[in-house]
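Journal club prep — side note

Before the paper discussion, L.F. wants everyone to see what a predicted structure for a comparable chain looks like in token form. Sequence:
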Amino acid sequence: MDVFEEMSDLSRRGEAFALATVVWRQGPSSSQAGSRAIITLDGEVHGWIGGACAEPVVIREAVHALTEGTSRLLLLGTPEQFGQSVPEGMTVIPISCQSEGALQVYIEPVLPVPHLVIVGESPMAHTLAALAGALRWRTELIAGPDFLAATSDDEPWRDQRCMIVVATQGHDDEDVLTRAIAARPAYVGLVGSRRRGSTVLGYLAEQGVPKNQLDQVKVPAGLDLGKTTHQEIAVAILAELVQLRASGALGRRAATAGRPASQARDTSAADPVCGMAVTAEVSNRPLTHDGSTYYFCSAACKRAFAENPDAYLKRPIQIGNA
């Protein structure tokens, strides 16, 4: 029941999470069929899904499921246990070489309702708000001065999953866009011509806004449909947002927004002894050999590698993530 209560709390707060459920087990295993856990985008776990072998893999795959917006069914064990009997579409991932157990885990991402903030008062802005509302997206239409005057406590758009469309039509574009960029949302788009956009971004660059942040601004916002009416521009913008969301691009941006580059990189590794997917961190028993650092799922694997590293480095290691 604690898991369901946590799901309810996260949903009320509009936070994304993945629900992982054990649907089958083969002993010995510390988990049981029906065991559940919630995994958030930052890898925090609520509930129980398995021990030290299974949990890191489930966390990694849950974060991938959240950023891609797709469910997945995992089969955790060793390839030899299953042979050619693995159903199509199931992901086989090696786990601890010390255990003969296996798990089948279903991971389902639970994503919040898309949050769209439109800054401006033009007919296009009103049309876009109406279209997004028809999709039941959480939509806010804010005048430029109100956007600039809002305090930190009144900023509902300060959310890394938020999408901000700046449609101020030349009225304080630079100031509004600066504040929108500072919110580090999943998407920032500026409505206007390429020439106008180039001028605005050039000015912000002169004011010291980092290039990597400016590169995230889509100018002009929306799919390129050629010469269009304001109603069609609204359709083009919404179509682009739907496309980005469906592809998982918005989720990936939200997952890395505001993090240092060192944290945004993928830190997965393979135990060179058993092939299990592990995280490249101190808790996974690092060992340096010939200038390279390796990580291990268990002390037994680390000991085996230390005794004869060449025996494991000369054979390919396959991580089941296809």
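L.F.'s comment for the group: Confidence is low (pLDDT under 50) at residues 258-266, 316-322. Keep this in mind when we get to the figures.
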